[in-house]
Fold these 2 entries.
Entry 1:
Amino acid sequence: MSEQRTAMVTGARKGIGRHLVEHLLASGWHVTGCSRKASELRHDNYTHFEADVSDEKAAKTLFKSIRKGAGRLDALINNAGIAGMNHALLTPMDAVERVLRTNVMGTFLYSREAAKLMKRGGGGRIVNFSTVAVPMALEGEAAYAASKAAVESLTRVLAREFGSFGITVNAVGPTPIDTDLIRAVPEDKIRGLLSRQALPRLGEYADVTNVVDFFLRPESAFVTGQVIYLGGVS
Amino acid sequence: MERHDLLRLVQDTLDDFASMMPDGPPDTLDESTALFGPGGLFDSIGLVTFLADLEEQVNDEADAVITVADERALSAEKSPFRSIASLVDHLAARLTEE
Ligand SMILES: NC(=O)c1ccc[n+]([C@@H]2O[C@H](COP(=O)([O-])OP(=O)(O)OC[C@H]3O[C@@H](n4cnc5c(N)ncnc54)[C@H](OP(=O)(O)O)[C@@H]3O)[C@@H](O)[C@H]2O)c1
């Protein structure tokens, strides 16, 4: 079994996921990432898989290769996510299905497979991704907010189911951050949203990394089933 | 993998799980040994953990990616997880389908 701490980051090609991968690599982790398309990131300690997080067979193949390679998994960051920002009256069902498959089923599937590997090593950390759209009940994001509410529920239930294996399960809920995910949202809508936060500014990658680091710290072994929102949203 | 290889794998994995058996490991272990329910080796969490581990072992040895607790297994009238024999048959069937 490898001596190096090993993390799996989903949705690793760009945005927050890509930043998290670079941050973990800089902190000395070995990182496996996945996303539907190939990654341009080249690093001795990075392996990228082209896998859709809702594809069960692909997930099993991916985790098997981690098991046979590093033989351990210390952290899973369920970052892959898509949004379908539209009024409910104008949201097609295949868009709803895509959002649920990626955000909910992807988080469930990767958590399940990761837990099998982590419990062998005596424990691990799972960090999920919610959003402030859940507590804010943001209009225009019904499917997305509902999918992330499901992720929060998974976080709490899995925290209980995996607790006895030494695995913690928590979630971070970012405010809007300037990535492709929100590029299609009109500026005045973003401004309106920020004005409802206690700290009315866009989030930065570092704000997310800070919360993820907190969940991953050895000292956080007694923190599980929690959702931490950024920007003073509650 | 042949049926007798699967049986050996199940028995080896059961040996590793002796500490999770509420009544301790049985004196004799054969194909009719019940895995759960009255007189069974495991409680529900023990069975879940055992099956998860077994799935990894089977997939590693057979170089496959089967899911042990799939929809059909969970909704079957007679659970394939009731005894060692039914579990081995279930694994053999899934590997053949792969
Ligand atoms: N940005 C924000 O304002 C914001 C706010 C709150 C929460 N979040 C959450 O933060 C997470 C990351 O978002 P982001 O802003 O970084 O988004 P992003 O820039 O759009 O990146 C999304 C990442 O996920 C991957 N991905 C999408 N669908 C996938 C699938 N089915 N399987 C595997 N990978 C997939 C994408 O790569 P491929 O295209 O190669 O698949 C990409 O690497 C999401 O869970 C999102 O909900 C973001």
Entry 2:
Amino acid sequence: MNLFTRSVAEGVRLAARHYRLSVLLWITLFVSSSLALRPLSGLVRAVDGSPFGERLLAGWDGDAFVGMLAGIQEGLGPAFAAIPAGILLFALLSLVLSTGILRTLQQGLVQGSMRRAVIEGVALFPKTFGAFFRFGVGTAAWLLLVAGLPAWILYELPGKDAPPNNGFTNAAILWGVLAALAVFLVRRARFDVARALLAQNAASTGRGASRLAGRRVAGARVAAAAIVLFWLIVVAILQTVFTRLGVAMNPQTNAGTTGLVVVRQIGFLLVAFAHVAQLGSLSAFERLRRPVPTPLPRLASPG
Amino acid sequence: MKTRLLRHSIWIALTAAAPLFALDAPRKLVDYDIRVTLDPATKTLTGAQTLKWTNPAPEPVSELRFHLYWNAFRNNRSTFFKESGGQLRDDQADTEGGWGRIDLTKVQIGGADVLARGRFDSPDDGNPDDRTVWVLPLETPVGPGETVTLTMDWISKVPKVYARAGYVRDYFFIGQWFPKIGVYEPAGMRRRKTSGWNCHQYHANSEFYANFGDYHVSITVPEKFVVASAGTWTGETKQGDKKTLRYELANVHDFAWAADPRFVVSESVWDPARDLPAAEIERAARTLGRSKEDLLRGMRPVKISVYGQPDHKPQLHRYHDAQKWSLTWLGLWAFPYPYEHISIVDPPEDGIGSGGMEYQTLYTGGTSRFFNSGPLVGMKFLEVVTVHEYGHGYWYGMVASNEFEESWMDEGINTFTEWEIVDRRWKYDLEFPLGLGFSTRGVMVPSVAKKQEPDPIVQSSWGYVSGGSYGNNSYFRSGAVIEQMRRLMGEERFFRGLRAYAERWRYDHPTSEDFFDAILSQAEEPAIIRGLIDQTFYGRGFFDVRVSSASTTRAEDFVGFDDTRKAVGFDETAGKKKSRDPDDKGRRFVSAVRVIRDGEIGVPTDVLLTFENGQTLTRPLAAGNRWLRLVVESSSKLARVEVDPAHKLLLDRNPMNNLKRLEADRSPSAARKVSTYLKHGLDIVLSSLWSAF
Ligand SMILES: [Zn+2]
């Protein structure tokens, strides 16, 4: 097995063993979005007293949906204010938990893993944030340099009098998209590896972890990017399948709506699982890329 | 019943009589013979024309008035520039070097030079710097019915395109480009009291108005240019590296063309024998009360030419498709398209200022390469603009209203037909994955119903308080009010009215009241529609129907003495009320409902009461009543009350208050379902963050 398949297989194994961590992530998702939508749900209640209710119950009706939005328009501004707050809360929770999850995975403890992931994540957060900051700034810089700048040059090259959408502009768009994807995949792999290093105290600062991660990824960039890409595709498939399923359900009764919630949330639980598995994969990748290979008794021993 | 039948037969007689007034061909008052040369290097047009103008009035006319439209782009003192601020729709003027102009170099009548006699005038705003209206006093007035012949030479600098006409690189869109005579309106025409010229300045939001006639146009361009022109191509000659193309177009009031070496030409034919769906013919015949033969009379094959940009190649077939369906719909529901061809110019993305503009037998569309393929292919902007601009071939083109003075008449009626044509074919013009979608009608109507407009709809195009008010009133508000008329009148009556308008005013110049007359002639209760017109086209009225209150309580059992002096429901000697029947047998409920209509517009509607046992009760709220109070005793609890259950009241300012659900209502909650899907949407956004970091 090569680096890619070994890392991915190990990630799946770890995520399955620590399935509670996926549940933990899913809870943060459910709670964050529920809180963010509380004011909006209250507002939407008016639809039951409007002529749009029956039409929306029947299935997608664009005109009725717009009519409903126009009807509650005045309240939408304040109600939407909670959504950015919810997104921020969720992002913060995800960041805190990511390193905690990595440490829990690495230590192999199954009992009390949820509690453990939270405690360790909080303890490691300052360092995690340091690595996140470097990930953000570094990615932005590389995107500008590798994707943005060449694309801009290509775009401007033909001059002002060139017709729109010529060969250069097409190449600029293509280059921009592909280069941005490549930069993201490598940088994201490096960020995951940095967190894995922080989780095992292999670096004392986020900056140090990020540097060390750079060394681990260097020389195996393709494999690292492939791992991230693989999980990106898995998530995209999961989201598509479950969203389609949810739309197809189109419940017409209150019980049906409850059923829809259950089915769709299973999808999000699986997405959470994929996230844990990705972290596990990159953690395994880091181990396999260590300059002096060391056996991994804890991880290898059956629990 | 009988009186109704009688009235009905009068309507039939009237409808049958209407086409008698209609014209099969326009009265031709102008004849233009134009020779023009485009020099792409200097962006100049050199033109010469022979214009024959006939005085339609019973009195002599002692001056002629001309539009010199391109002088709107002459400098930043023109009325057009001042009103637009150098920006129209989404495009910005190039104030560095993009100015344009038109200068007459020679004007002769009967061989005598008369150019020096002319002067500029600004009849609308008195702007001393505007050069868009040129007045030529005549030595000899043109007598009634007489024709005067003018030869005119001119030189134009093509403006950099931002408002309808102009150039970008070597794409040229040439509209409103020649010295064009105004309209001399005899008393009575368009309901005017006294005769006079109708020749307005070029305003930011104003479009056009002219007499019908014939055009003979020769266009000279460098060899490599592809020319897209109105009219029928009749021949071509070559002189060195230049070519001259000749076009003929009869029975129109405008002529536009475009040139670009990069045009990709694609052609197709709409053939009524093949492209008219039987079901649509059937539907139109039934609704309009006409025989199929009657509807198909005059239908002819129409050649469709699309002059596309190379970067839009994957989309060009969509122009043909939308054009064919528009030919079908308008041909059946208004009248057959009489010209033998239609040209569609697809402007380049850096010349989009010329996009979405109507001329006769030629119009401009517009799209972006991002709709070629990928996630945005469901955005049907190309189809909508095609349907819209072709629709103008009727509402402004053949039914030639005055776009300067009554901008709603072309844009509003056209918005209504555009919405209908799009809805019938695609339902949603903004299509998203998962079957989600929106229609422009669905998006615009609620906002129109809610918003208090500052202006009545009927207004000159420069008379609105702002560009926003012009746009909203001329397009969406009038479109929505016409749609409201349709829902109040019903399909048959409304579409017969629209058809009567189209047929009567084909090749003629209607006013707002002519449209209303045609519609009202078909209305069952004209007073209601007239009230709607007065409050919207001439006012700023609105309406809001609402269920003000609804309750249901257990009916009190009879208590007291009955007619036989017997004590019922109480114990006379003990002075005590008897307790209720423990079985609750035969219990009755009293339900009280109040429905109120706010606002000035009186519209009739229904109030639907639904009881717990499924029984329903419908009561009308008449147009003349502002409220309805109902008290109903029944064996079942009232579950819900709905006003306008058939959803006919499109312009209801607040439809959210049209329904009251009581405790007994067991119907499922749409709010819960909507909230659930909204949550899933946010869950998708949030969980995607895991993929990001
Ligand atoms: Zn229009």
